[in-house]
Amino acid sequence: MKKKVMIGMSGGVDSSVAAYLLKQQGYDVIGVTMKLWQDDDDELIENEGGCCSLAAVEDARKVADSIGIPFYVLNFSDVFKEKVIEPFIDEYLNGRTPNPCIACNKHIKFDDFFKKARQIGCDYVATGHYAKIEKDEENNRFLLKKSVTDKKDQTYALYNLTQEQLEHTLLPIGEYEKDKVREIAKEMGMDVHNKPDSQEICFVKDNDYAGYVKKHSKKRIEEGYFVDTKGNVLGKHNGIINYTIGQRKGLGIAFGKPMFVVDINAKRNTVVLGDNEDIFNKELIAKDVNFIPFDDIDEPKRVQAKIRYSAKPSPATIYKIRQNTIKIVFDEPQRAITKGQSVVMYDGDVVIGGGIID
Q1: Which family does it belong to (predicted)?
Q2: Binding site residue list
């Protein structure tokens, strides 16, 4: 019997080609678009929102029809609100800078979506992520590895995958360069072959995170004070949600020299400013850590680690503090280590794991 796979289709070129490749490989493929959020802005629902706008659903449906697979829209909006949107708002209110795409992968795409697929008898789930999954036969572990193209590699957002999820997940385009993926889509006559990549968070219009938090928060956003690293008051800020670590522009006040956001203290409602050198640090604590090639570490371990999606991995040593919590010490200072973002660790092209910077 054919193995059955449920693939998440965003209406973009990557998931469209992934679905086509799975069909070519002989799988029984079911295409699904996840309805993830609701908004009272009709224009936003129609055109924006990347992977779950009405326009994206229609693009995905056309592709499914063209390659001859069934297509469904499943509603995950309630769980998305609970596990992604509400924590996103809370994190900003607490002076942190969250990554909702990582939360979505952890809680929605590879948890609720994964469970739904297994419930209806699917052997696998699949997505259009640029990453690879391989079996380490010697240690009987599944590994998450970088895709063939560093430029598009998306392993940073997938570090939460468990062994069970890795065993039942297919990532068909991890072996392909982006240009080749677009070429396949064009050869297949897919209208999405030249569709631009989505760059923004799907539920935030125009990348205005602060505006979104202000609109949807039940808590009033209060003005507070800019202070220097010694606690001296420098002026007023218009709410901590408007700032992030390392920020220089858009502070709304002139100091006669470049000043950078060094820290955000939600309890005191202060934004700490300092010089450029003040935003470099060699150490961080990470919580909610997930390891992939092994269950835990007991001894210090050398890795390469990166503190944001676009960064290059840097040499570092990791130390266990307690269960699911580690300290990472980099060989060289890192710029703007930001609470709420993720740190992801590598050994060459193998993902060691990751966690939330605390």
Answers
A1: Belongs to the MnmA/TRMU family.
A2: 8-15, 34, 128
Binding residues for ATP: 8-15, 34, 128
Q: What is the mean pLDDT of residues 53-57?
A: 82
37 contacts 203 by C-beta, under 8 angstroms:
yes
Which of the following is catalytic: 51, 52, 104, 122? 104
Q: Which of 51, 52, 122, 202 is catalytic?
A: 202
Q: Report whether pLDDT(204) > 90.
A: no
Whether 52 is catalytic: no
H or E segment to which residue 60 belongs: helix 54-67
Using an 8 Å Cβ cutoff, are 89 and 50 in contact? no
What tens digit of pLDDT does each residue of 278-303 get? 999 999 999 999 999 999 999 999 99
Rounded Cα distance between 303 and 353, Å, is 10
Q: Please indicate whether residue 104 is annotated as part of the active site.
A: yes
Instruction: List the Cα angle 25/31/33 in 5-degree steps.
Output: 145
Buried b (16+ CB within 10 A) or exposed e, 96-123: bbbbbbbbbbbbbbbbbbbebbeeeebb
Dist. CA 273–CA 339, nearest whole Å: 16
Exposure of 342 by Cβ count < 10 A (0-12 exposed, 13-18 middle, 19+ buried)?
buried
